[in-house]
User: Fold this.
Amino acid sequence: MTDGIRKVKTSDLELKDRLVSIQRVTKVTKGGRTFSFSAIVVVGNEDGIVGHGLGKAKEVTTAISKGIEDAKKNLVKVPVHKGTIPHEQLAKYGGAKVFLKPASEGTGVKAGGAMRAVLESVGVRNVLAKSKGSSNPHNLVKATFAALLELRDAKAVSQARGVTVDKVFNG
Assistant:
């Protein structure tokens, strides 16, 4: 856990998958055009564990299933506190910038497209989110993951500082 990424084992987890984006891509050869599909998938147990993956294949269903398998290999643990995130977080990946802010109970997930899929898969029920810059779903998913991986709960902060959890809040 020194590099900040919290890897998770996939055994005995009940993961739900969400299709973020599917695109038809074309390869032009001298014999004509070859069509295939690219799918971005997010999987999560809606209790703090989430992963994302990319699948490419000649058929849609195969691309989605490859994306799900890839996502299961990239699972991470995210701190979720009372259905929201512990603190505000800003992150960037490529041209996509995302801003996540905790919200009170009953607010819901105020986020668009790719960010919504990631946040719901994590298990966040109340959050305010804003995306700026690129709306490319690949970069939005990765920027959202970057923001979620930078989140720290009170226990992690207290361990890093070498003080008690009470000292973090009253400190």
User: Anything to note?
Assistant: Residues 75 and 141 are 14 Å apart (CA to CA). The longest strand covers residues 16-29. The longest helix spans residues 60-72. The beta strands are 16-29, 32-44, 49-57, 76-77, 89-93, 96-102, 109-110, 127-133.
